[in-house]
Design goal:
single chain; alpha+beta; 4-stranded antiparallel beta sheet; 6 helices; elongated
Protein backbone atom coordinates (compact mmCIF):
# COMPACT_ATOMS: atom_id res chain seq x y z
CA UNK A 1 0.00 0.00 0.00
CA UNK A 2 1.15 3.55 -0.73
CA UNK A 3 0.04 6.84 0.74
CA UNK A 4 -0.20 10.01 -1.31
CA UNK A 5 -1.63 13.50 -0.99
CA UNK A 6 -3.77 15.10 -3.71
CA UNK A 7 -4.02 18.89 -3.51
CA UNK A 8 -6.26 21.37 -5.27
CA UNK A 9 -9.98 21.53 -5.93
CA UNK A 10 -10.02 19.58 -9.20
CA UNK A 11 -7.84 16.79 -7.84
CA UNK A 12 -9.91 16.46 -4.68
CA UNK A 13 -13.06 16.24 -6.83
CA UNK A 14 -11.47 13.24 -8.58
CA UNK A 15 -10.70 11.65 -5.21
CA UNK A 16 -14.29 12.19 -4.07
CA UNK A 17 -15.44 10.21 -7.10
CA UNK A 18 -12.81 7.51 -6.62
CA UNK A 19 -13.65 6.92 -2.97
CA UNK A 20 -17.40 6.53 -3.66
CA UNK A 21 -17.37 2.69 -3.47
CA UNK A 22 -16.01 2.88 0.09
CA UNK A 23 -18.97 5.06 1.04
CA UNK A 24 -21.68 3.08 -0.74
CA UNK A 25 -23.12 1.35 2.34
CA UNK A 26 -26.52 2.27 3.82
CA UNK A 27 -24.85 3.55 7.00
CA UNK A 28 -23.17 6.43 5.16
CA UNK A 29 -25.09 9.70 5.50
CA UNK A 30 -25.70 12.05 2.59
CA UNK A 31 -23.21 14.54 4.03
CA UNK A 32 -20.34 12.07 3.51
CA UNK A 33 -21.24 11.22 -0.08
CA UNK A 34 -19.97 12.67 -3.34
CA UNK A 35 -22.69 15.17 -4.30
CA UNK A 36 -22.69 16.81 -0.86
CA UNK A 37 -18.89 16.92 -0.63
CA UNK A 38 -18.56 18.33 -4.14
CA UNK A 39 -21.02 21.09 -3.26
CA UNK A 40 -19.15 21.76 -0.01
CA UNK A 41 -15.93 21.99 -1.99
CA UNK A 42 -17.33 24.89 -4.01
CA UNK A 43 -19.17 26.62 -1.19
CA UNK A 44 -17.36 29.80 -0.18
CA UNK A 45 -17.47 30.66 3.52
CA UNK A 46 -18.10 34.26 4.48
CA UNK A 47 -15.85 36.14 4.89
CA UNK A 48 -13.85 34.34 2.22
CA UNK A 49 -10.38 33.19 3.34
CA UNK A 50 -8.05 31.18 1.17
CA UNK A 51 -9.05 27.57 1.67
CA UNK A 52 -6.80 24.69 0.65
CA UNK A 53 -8.31 21.32 -0.17
CA UNK A 54 -6.32 18.10 0.15
CA UNK A 55 -6.98 14.38 0.14
CA UNK A 56 -4.76 11.89 1.95
CA UNK A 57 -5.22 8.62 0.06
CA UNK A 58 -4.10 5.04 0.74
CA UNK A 59 -4.15 2.69 -2.24
CA UNK A 60 -2.47 -0.45 -3.52
CA UNK A 61 -0.97 1.43 -6.49
CA UNK A 62 -1.60 4.70 -8.30
CA UNK A 63 -3.87 3.10 -10.89
CA UNK A 64 -6.01 1.36 -8.27
CA UNK A 65 -9.04 2.49 -6.29
CA UNK A 66 -8.48 4.06 -2.87
CA UNK A 67 -8.54 1.72 0.12
CA UNK A 68 -8.83 4.68 2.47
CA UNK A 69 -9.07 8.45 2.29
CA UNK A 70 -9.23 11.55 4.46
CA UNK A 71 -10.69 14.57 2.64
CA UNK A 72 -9.44 17.73 4.33
CA UNK A 73 -9.65 21.49 4.09
CA UNK A 74 -7.43 24.07 5.76
CA UNK A 75 -7.31 27.82 6.14
CA UNK A 76 -5.42 30.40 8.16
CA UNK A 77 -7.07 31.79 11.30
CA UNK A 78 -5.90 34.23 13.96
CA UNK A 79 -5.34 32.89 17.45
CA UNK A 80 -4.11 35.43 19.98
CA UNK A 81 -2.67 37.62 17.26
CA UNK A 82 -0.76 34.83 15.50
CA UNK A 83 -1.60 32.99 12.30
CA UNK A 84 -2.53 29.33 12.73
CA UNK A 85 -3.43 26.76 10.08
CA UNK A 86 -6.78 25.18 10.96
CA UNK A 87 -7.26 21.71 9.45
CA UNK A 88 -10.73 20.17 9.28
CA UNK A 89 -12.65 17.52 7.38
CA UNK A 90 -14.13 18.62 4.07
CA UNK A 91 -17.67 19.80 4.66
CA UNK A 92 -17.10 20.88 8.25
CA UNK A 93 -18.04 24.52 8.56
CA UNK A 94 -20.28 24.32 5.51
CA UNK A 95 -24.07 24.04 5.40
CA UNK A 96 -25.32 21.72 8.16
CA UNK A 97 -26.85 18.49 6.96
CA UNK A 98 -29.65 16.46 8.52
CA UNK A 99 -29.17 16.42 12.30
CA UNK A 100 -28.96 13.22 14.29
CA UNK A 101 -26.37 11.11 12.44
CA UNK A 102 -22.61 11.64 12.55
CA UNK A 103 -22.09 13.63 9.32
CA UNK A 104 -18.44 12.91 8.49
CA UNK A 105 -16.45 9.82 7.47
CA UNK A 106 -12.81 8.85 6.94
CA UNK A 107 -13.35 5.56 5.08
CA UNK A 108 -10.80 2.77 5.44
CA UNK A 109 -11.11 -0.76 4.07
CA UNK A 110 -9.55 -2.46 7.11
CA UNK A 111 -7.59 -1.69 10.32
CA UNK A 112 -4.23 -1.78 8.53
CA UNK A 113 -5.42 0.84 6.04
CA UNK A 114 -6.85 2.92 8.90
CA UNK A 115 -3.43 2.92 10.60
CA UNK A 116 -1.66 3.89 7.37
CA UNK A 117 -4.18 6.65 6.72
CA UNK A 118 -3.60 8.01 10.23
CA UNK A 119 0.14 8.04 9.48
CA UNK A 120 -0.53 10.00 6.31
CA UNK A 121 -2.59 12.65 8.11
CA UNK A 122 0.04 12.93 10.86
CA UNK A 123 2.78 13.37 8.24
CA UNK A 124 0.74 16.09 6.52
CA UNK A 125 0.46 17.96 9.81
CA UNK A 126 4.17 17.55 10.48
CA UNK A 127 4.93 19.21 7.12
CA UNK A 128 2.64 22.17 7.83
CA UNK A 129 4.55 25.43 8.14
CA UNK A 130 4.06 27.23 11.42
CA UNK A 131 1.55 26.42 14.15
CA UNK A 132 -1.51 24.35 13.32
CA UNK A 133 -4.76 23.19 14.86
CA UNK A 134 -6.58 19.99 13.95
CA UNK A 135 -10.34 19.71 14.48
CA UNK A 136 -11.91 16.54 13.09
CA UNK A 137 -15.54 16.62 14.17
CA UNK A 138 -18.76 14.70 13.59
CA UNK A 139 -17.36 11.18 13.19
CA UNK A 140 -19.09 8.00 14.42
CA UNK A 141 -18.06 6.38 17.67
CA UNK A 142 -15.24 3.88 17.24
CA UNK A 143 -13.83 5.44 14.07
CA UNK A 144 -10.56 3.49 13.60
CA UNK A 145 -8.69 6.27 11.77
CA UNK A 146 -9.49 8.77 14.49
CA UNK A 147 -8.32 6.38 17.21
CA UNK A 148 -5.04 5.67 15.40
CA UNK A 149 -4.45 9.35 14.70
CA UNK A 150 -5.03 10.30 18.33
CA UNK A 151 -2.34 7.82 19.40
CA UNK A 152 0.13 9.34 16.94
CA UNK A 153 -0.47 12.96 17.96
CA UNK A 154 0.44 12.42 21.60
CA UNK A 155 -0.61 14.38 24.65
CA UNK A 156 -1.78 17.37 22.61
CA UNK A 157 -4.72 15.38 21.24
CA UNK A 158 -8.05 15.03 23.00
CA UNK A 159 -11.27 13.23 22.13
CA UNK A 160 -14.67 14.76 22.68
CA UNK A 161 -18.02 13.02 22.55
CA UNK A 162 -21.38 14.71 22.12
CA UNK A 163 -24.93 13.47 21.78
CA UNK A 164 -26.60 15.00 18.75
CA UNK A 165 -30.25 15.95 18.36
CA UNK A 166 -32.36 14.56 15.53
CA UNK A 167 -35.34 16.15 13.79
CA UNK A 168 -38.59 14.15 13.91
CA UNK A 169 -41.17 14.38 11.13
CA UNK A 170 -44.66 14.43 12.66
CA UNK A 171 -46.32 16.54 9.97
CA UNK A 172 -49.05 13.94 9.51
CA UNK A 173 -50.32 14.88 12.98
CA UNK A 174 -50.91 18.46 11.78
CA UNK A 175 -53.02 17.80 8.71
CA UNK A 176 -52.91 16.41 5.16
CA UNK A 177 -49.34 16.47 3.89
CA UNK A 178 -48.25 16.91 0.30
CA UNK A 179 -45.03 14.93 -0.19
CA UNK A 180 -43.03 14.78 -3.39
CA UNK A 181 -39.54 14.25 -4.78
CA UNK A 182 -40.36 16.15 -7.98
CA UNK A 183 -37.65 18.80 -8.59
CA UNK A 184 -40.11 21.07 -10.38
CA UNK A 185 -42.50 20.94 -7.45
CA UNK A 186 -39.69 21.80 -5.07
CA UNK A 187 -39.11 25.13 -6.82
CA UNK A 188 -42.54 26.39 -5.75
CA UNK A 189 -41.79 25.93 -2.06
CA UNK A 190 -38.02 26.36 -1.97
CA UNK A 191 -38.03 30.13 -1.23
CA UNK A 192 -40.31 29.55 1.77
CA UNK A 193 -38.22 26.65 3.03
CA UNK A 194 -34.95 28.52 2.56
CA UNK A 195 -36.24 31.25 4.87
CA UNK A 196 -36.02 28.59 7.62
CA UNK A 197 -32.66 27.09 6.60
CA UNK A 198 -30.18 25.95 9.29
CA UNK A 199 -28.70 28.76 11.34
CA UNK A 200 -25.44 30.15 9.99
CA UNK A 201 -25.83 28.67 6.51
CA UNK A 202 -25.82 30.72 3.32
CA UNK A 203 -28.97 30.71 1.22
CA UNK A 204 -27.03 30.08 -2.01
CA UNK A 205 -25.21 27.05 -0.59
CA UNK A 206 -28.35 25.42 0.82
CA UNK A 207 -30.27 26.13 -2.38
CA UNK A 208 -27.54 24.48 -4.46
CA UNK A 209 -27.49 21.41 -2.21
CA UNK A 210 -31.27 21.11 -2.32
CA UNK A 211 -31.38 21.31 -6.11
CA UNK A 212 -28.53 18.83 -6.62
CA UNK A 213 -30.18 16.23 -4.41
CA UNK A 214 -33.64 16.90 -5.82
CA UNK A 215 -32.29 16.28 -9.32
CA UNK A 216 -30.94 12.94 -8.08
CA UNK A 217 -34.36 12.02 -6.67
CA UNK A 218 -33.16 11.81 -3.07
CA UNK A 219 -34.78 14.95 -1.65
CA UNK A 220 -38.38 14.98 -0.50
CA UNK A 221 -40.25 18.19 0.14
CA UNK A 222 -43.34 18.03 2.34
CA UNK A 223 -45.89 20.79 2.88
CA UNK A 224 -48.97 21.15 5.06
CA UNK A 225 -51.22 23.76 3.48
CA UNK A 226 -52.97 26.50 5.45
CA UNK A 227 -55.31 29.31 4.52
CA UNK A 228 -52.50 31.60 3.33
CA UNK A 229 -49.96 29.15 1.93
CA UNK A 230 -47.80 26.64 3.72
CA UNK A 231 -48.58 26.11 7.41
CA UNK A 232 -45.61 23.77 7.82
CA UNK A 233 -42.89 22.39 5.60
CA UNK A 234 -39.92 20.04 5.66
CA UNK A 235 -37.04 18.88 3.47
CA UNK A 236 -35.96 15.26 3.98
CA UNK A 237 -32.96 13.52 2.45
CA UNK A 238 -33.49 9.88 1.46
CA UNK A 239 -30.37 7.85 2.26
CA UNK A 240 -30.62 4.30 0.86
CA UNK A 241 -34.07 3.83 2.34
CA UNK A 242 -33.30 5.85 5.48
CA UNK A 243 -35.27 9.07 5.89
CA UNK A 244 -33.19 11.95 7.30
CA UNK A 245 -35.28 15.08 8.02
CA UNK A 246 -33.09 18.08 7.19
CA UNK A 247 -34.87 21.33 8.09
CA UNK A 248 -38.31 22.86 8.01
CA UNK A 249 -40.78 25.04 9.87
CA UNK A 250 -44.16 25.07 11.57
CA UNK A 251 -45.95 22.60 13.86
CA UNK A 252 -45.35 18.88 13.51
CA UNK A 253 -41.56 19.06 13.84
CA UNK A 254 -39.77 18.19 17.07
CA UNK A 255 -36.32 17.09 18.10
CA UNK A 256 -35.21 13.86 19.75
CA UNK A 257 -31.92 12.30 20.87
CA UNK A 258 -29.66 11.42 17.96
CA UNK A 259 -26.47 9.38 17.63
CA UNK A 260 -23.32 10.19 19.61
CA UNK A 261 -20.54 11.87 17.67
CA UNK A 262 -16.84 11.83 18.43
CA UNK A 263 -14.28 14.51 17.58
CA UNK A 264 -10.51 14.80 17.79
CA UNK A 265 -8.86 18.10 18.60
CA UNK A 266 -5.10 18.66 18.58
CA UNK A 267 -2.52 21.36 17.93
CA UNK A 268 1.17 21.68 17.17
CA UNK A 269 2.01 22.61 20.75
CA UNK A 270 1.31 19.06 21.86
CA UNK A 271 3.77 17.43 19.45
Amino acid sequence: MITRVAEGRSRVVREIRAVAPLLAGPGTPTTARGPWLAAALHAAPAPVPRVRHRAVVVEAHRQGRPAGAALLSSRTVLRGGRRVTLVRLLGDGGPPGPPGAAPRRMPAADPAVAAQLADGVADLLARTRGPWELSLTGLPMGDPVLAALGARLGTGASFRTARSRALVDALDEVGPVQRSTDPAGLERWLPVLLAHRPAGSRRADVRALARVHAAAGVLEHAVVLGDDGARAGLLTLLDSGVRRPWFGFGPGLRDAPGQPWVSLVADSRGR
